[in-house]
Amino acid sequence: MKRTLGCCYYPEHWPRAVWEDDARRMADAGLTWVRIGEFAWSRLEREPGTFTFDWLDEAFEVLGKAGLKVVLGTPTATPPRWMLDRHPDMLAVDAAGQPRKFGSRRHYCFSHEGYRAEAARITRALAERYGRNSHLGAWQTDNEYGCHDTILSYSDAARRAFQDWLSQRYQSVDALNRAWGNVFWSMEYDRFDQVDLPNLTVTEPNPSHSLDFRRFSSDQVKVFNRTQVDIIRAHSAAPISHNYMGRITDFDHFDLGADMEIATWDSYPLGFLEDRVPADIAHKRAFARQGDPDFQAFHHDLYRAVGRGRWWVMEQQPGPVNWAPYNPAPLPGMVRLWSWEAFAHGAEAVCYFRWRQAPMAQEMMHAGLLRPDGVDAPGMIEAQQVGQELAEAPDVAPVQAPVGLIFDYAAEWAWAVQPHAAGASYFQMVFETYQALRKLGLSVDILPPETRAFDGYKLVLAPGLMQMPDDLKQALSAAQAQVVLGPRAGARTRDMQMPVPLAPAFPGLDVRVSRVESLRPDMPMPLEGGGAVTTYREELEGTAEAILRLDDGRPVAMRAGRVTYLGGWLDSVGIVRLLRPLCDAAGVETLDLPEGVRLRDTGAERFWFNHTDARVTVEGHDLPAAGVLRQPLI
Ligand code: GAL
């Protein structure tokens, strides 16, 4: 596989006179890809129905002639102002009932029929015009679904669409009443059109109602995206992608990804650390200029799975961003490290956001590869270095990791609907498990919840999987790997009710969760031998062997054969204590990597990444601060 670089460019922001020079400099810098167009609707259709394509035709020409391949974005994340005159009720509505107004972006409700038709119309116009353009290399639909909290909408359009979705799913209102348990608190409905959205209720809504609303909302994104995909496919053979974001879980990315050839994502390590990585202040301070050492890697692995092996970084942070609470500059070397980290996890391409820093509007304080005056910014120098190194690097042969970690968007929604402890988050639990695996020096494949073949994995983990279909239980019990389940494995039915027999009801494993409790942050429960259970704990009964206990002797993890059930949320010491012996049992060699040092194996090389600001020696390797070391594997 040939690995390539690119950038995001907005020709509509810059005078026509600089385009040639920009294109030449991109090509000289070793870039292959240039993504354009994804916010340009007001320049493509200044008035409804009047298209102005000449400037985009020219941009294609100029960029293509310089040898670049264009990724064309559909501009549906930024409907122009006139769109609201045509569809005043197209805005998404927040949980407090307030419309989310015009004046930034993503101001639409996925359920609005009128806006869906407009999005299809502009997509068709672009697909017809550019679908076979020789400079076109790929497509991007919309931009970052879910960014700025834009999936759940409580609009009238969403309510009507939800009622329709429910009637198709349940066929009869009695079936819905039974599935949700609406006899409780006299919540029974007589007709589907009585069912409202689960916001503004007096106290919490029925969890089954909330979970269905989450599923519905995810389906709306899929339908919106598929409309674009179908239109583009009819006119173009170029691969189609969408640029996903970090820690956005309100729609099922596996579901969407199944419709497209490539998954891409937007990697902003420093913004994420401030804004969405679960970490304490000391960790944020230590990595303020590097980003969390696992957060990007986790998403690389996640989106590799979403893309069924084909994935890119569509937007790579090239310097300070503008949108986090604090926006430090990266340490010298980090732009290069982030780029190589993506390639080590199998990226086909890394594109930097953006080409030149914009002097106007919301993102004027966001770095580009170039400064606003056109001079190379520090990120450009590192991008060029990566380009030169890529030219000499061996090909990356994709290789299966020894460890598989299941990630399920529906489990994230179920935890969000019923966290039981303030802020308890499935994403966080899975991420902490991933961090522990990486601290042990392991490369990890993230697996979709539909996985039923676990061949080749030595260790498979499914933390927090609240709903577990029987065929998944069967497949896991038949796997040749060490398997770790829980907490909350199979704790709810698909309808979000409690199953009897009690969870986990796993074949061949005599363990039952007899009671659960959640814990205040200041009441961790120590484990015998070190570490603690925090946040959430289960009482376990059964005859399986206890392999981890509280200091009063009560079991926390129990094992039968190759299957281990974990009945609590372990802290960072506890989880490593659980996993290391299981790795030994699975024949997987582990290390104990120092803080901030991580590795990733490909078929040809072991990559070492030092995310700290000091030189580190590990396993006989000398790693410079913010440095990358490539060790050939024989
Ligand atoms: C991304 C987005 C870009 C730009 C960037 C700034 O989330 O897709 O358009 O806003 O953030 O960091």
- Most strands sheet: 8 strands, parallel, barrel
Helical percentage: 25-40%
CATH superfamily of the largest domain: Glycosidases
General form = globular
Which structural class matches the secondary elements? alpha/beta
Q: Averaged pLDDT, please?
A: 97
Number of helices: 18
Number of strands: 26
Proportion of beta-strand residues = 15-25%
Query: Kindly, what is the distance between the CA atoms of the first and last residues, rounded to a whole number of angstroms?
Result: 19 Å
CATH class of the largest domain: Alpha Beta
Ranges where pLDDT stays below 50 over 5 or more residues in a row are none
- Small molecules in complex: beta-D-galactopyranose
Which fold name corresponds to the CATH topology of the largest domain? Answer: TIM Barrel
Biggest sheet: strand arrangement:
1-2-5-6-7-8-9-10
- At CATH level 2, the architecture of the largest domain is Alpha-Beta Barrel
The total number of structural domains is 4
From the alpha carbons, calculate the radius of gyration and give it in angstroms: 25 Å
